[in-house]
Amino acid sequence: MPARVSIITVADAAGVSTATVSQALRGIGRMSDETRQHVLAVAEQLGYRPNALAQRFVRQRADAIGFLLDGEPDQAFHNPFWFEIINGAHAVCAEHDMTLVLLHPAMVAQKGGFDVLFQEKRIDGLLFPDTPEHADWRRTAMKSSCPFVALGQPQVPSPHNWVDIDNQAAGRFMYHQIAARGYRRPVFISGPADIGIGTDRWRGFQAAARASRPGTLGARLCAAASTTNAARETTVSALQAEPDCDVIVTSHNIIAQGALQAAQQLGHRVPEDLGLITFDSYPLAAHSDPRVAAVDMDMYGLGSNAVRVLLEILHRPDGHWPVQHMLHLYRMQDGESLPHR
Amino acid sequence: MPARVSIITVADAAGVSTATVSQALRGIGRMSDETRQHVLAVAEQLGYRPNALAQRFVRQRADAIGFLLDGEPDQAFHNPFWFEIINGAHAVCAEHDMTLVLLHPAMVAQKGGFDVLFQEKRIDGLLFPDTPEHADWRRTAMKSSCPFVALGQPQVPSPHNWVDIDNQAAGRFMYHQIAARGYRRPVFISGPADIGIGTDRWRGFQAAARASRPGTLGARLCAAASTTNAARETTVSALQAEPDCDVIVTSHNIIAQGALQAAQQLGHRVPEDLGLITFDSYPLAAHSDPRVAAVDMDMYGLGSNAVRVLLEILHRPDGHWPVQHMLHLYRMQDGESLPHR
User: Fold this and answer.
1) Could B73 and A83 be called an inter-chain contact, meaning their C-beta atoms sit closer than 8 Å?
2) Where is the HTH lacI-type domain (chains A, B) (predicted)?
């Protein structure tokens, strides 16, 4: 590797001070355009590369956003969307020449919390998924001085920054998709009633059904657990209780798998006798037989929007109102299980 | 936020020079134990936090490892293991107080390549998945001066650092698992023959079968594509050609889904008439009916081992032999589809 070209080498070759080189490179300071162009030309000719560590030290900015991750092994499919979220966040960071730093809760705790990471200039801001099982992350973040954006709407109104996908709107969208394809008697199979996302999706679905055709709306049945087996049992009961049902809507892929097994168990053909559609698209839907249609969520878009909001906050003065964005990031993904009637 | 406690504040309060404070904090320099303890006590009392940017600038180390990612939306399930790999890498970085920086190929290209990121002290080293579709990543990394570890064994011997899971050994392990459960006439259904992982798994499987029971070994059938539909068609042909087959081994979950559908289509009950087992465990196997047994790969372990190897390389002098590790990171995951006969 050739010797490193430093700011001193550039200053010597250009016949100016290191301060002038530094200012010329950063586009600041008082100097003639001619001088600035000369310095930039010399720097380029010599193959000068700025030292990112030096630049960050001078600016006292980490140029880094922390992303808090659970860090347990084998969890990719416990929350199959984290990779998409991180990927979207990462792409926007890259656009802005910033780093996405993955943070481990144990490491954050050992360091003394987000505040310390922020004060040590390891991160300029923070993202984390705000889920019921990680509510303490939000509480800790709110007490810290580190700017942050939570991914996920809190259960009760709260004065902090968050972005989320609007699951009620996605539920309304779902209703209109099945109505447009000619289905009239939906049954909605969800996981346990206390799962916020499923409940929001059902509320939107129900509201759209009520607004479209007063007096007739789908039934909702909640499985005891978010497992294939629980969903199969619940769907069997639902199909026996609602023999006129013409389409099953499920709150996610695992429930859809159970619903498909229940239909087969009862001798219903999907889609000839019964339509089937789910929220979210991951391999269970795409590789089932028949392929299950889905209202899919753009988790990549959620991650990239979260970074955009955080960058906006970092550039704003103190004392702002919280930024709370409900994003409409969903789309229809057709599948063999939901033909037009 | 209270005013930041600097190294100068600590020096003033302790009655020593800033150089002494700096050396005391870093555990270097000549001074009495008494002085060192005094400085550390004062620093702690004042709540001094080292400035990570300053420390990194002084040491000229980024304390960061780059991880090259494709960055396309919706790819989580094209390679469902990346999240696990990243998670494992991230955990070991955190243990060593290092950052895992996600890198976007477009961003790397715009910067002028890995060498520039390394020379600008943005990363100390690099990890990337070495797959056929990203062979140019390896070529570029090999030309750069940035230390790196590729995740994935190259197709032909090559003098660079890599780690991989030993798929031939996993294939042998698979054979012994089914033999131990009493199965005697396996058929192995894989995706296209040119997929390296599937071919390695088959070679190991075949070698173990040949060594265990000379003259009798499983047949292999390659589906035209790695899709459920192609696997279903291939499995139907296989079961018609090999009516004595007592267990189907598939090279991954999507193929397993097709094989399960084929068995049902031909009226075979799984597992009563026919056992089924797959390599890899992701939701298709866990949520199928019956639940499909698997030889699962520890991708979290692959990621964490890759970082360990990279850290080892960073601490070694130049001119070393390449580190090329085949890891034995797989295990049996029981499922309803493979009972003991």
Assistant:
1) no
2) 5-59
Interface check B120 vs A, CB under 8 A = yes
What residues of chain A, 39 to 68, have a C-beta less than 8 Å from chain B? 49-54, 56-57, 60, 62, 64
Question: What is the CATH superfamily name and number for domain A7-50?
Answer: lambda repressor-like DNA-binding domains (1.10.260.40)
A228 at B interface, C-beta within 8 A: yes
**A84 in B contact zone (CB under 8 Å):** yes
Using one digit for the tens of pLDDT, what is the confidence trace for A282-309? 777 888 889 999 999 999 999 999 999 9
Q: Are strands B293-297 and B324-327 parallel, antiparallel or unpaired?
A: unpaired
CB A122 within 8 A of CB B64: no
Fold designation for B64-165+300-331:
Rossmann fold (3.40.50)
Domain covering B167-296 in this structure, CATH number: 3.40.50.2300
pLDDT at A1: 40
Three-class secondary structure of residue B126 per DSSP: strand
Chain A interface, best mutation among B25, B46, B85, B289, by max A CB count within 10 A:
B289
Taking an 8 Å cut-off on Cβ atoms, the answer to whether A53 and B52 are in contact is: no
Q: Using one digit for the tens of pLDDT, what is the confidence trace for A242-280? A: 888 999 999 999 899 999 999 989 999 999 999 999 999
**Torsion angle of the four alpha carbons B278, A284, B304, B25, in this order, in degrees rounded to the nearest 10:** -160
ipTM of the complex in this document: 0.72
Total beta-carbon pairs less than 8 A apart between chain A and chain B: 171
A198-216 pLDDT, tens per residue?
A: 889 999 999 999 888 765 5
**Cα–Cα separations (whole angstroms), residue B289 to A47, A168, A258:** 62, 31, 9
List of chain B residues whose C-beta atoms are within 8 Å of the C-beta of residue A120: 49-52
In this predicted structure, the answer to whether residue A140 has a pLDDT above a threshold of 80 is yes
Write out chain B residues lying below 8 Å of A69, CB-based.
Answer: 87, 90
Superfamily in which the A64-165+300-329 domain is placed by CATH: Response regulator (3.40.50.2300)
Q: What is the CA angle A290-A238-B272, rounded to 5?
A: 55
Q: State whether CATH 3.40.50.2300 applies to domain A167-297.
A: yes
A205/A170 Cα distance (integer angstroms): 8
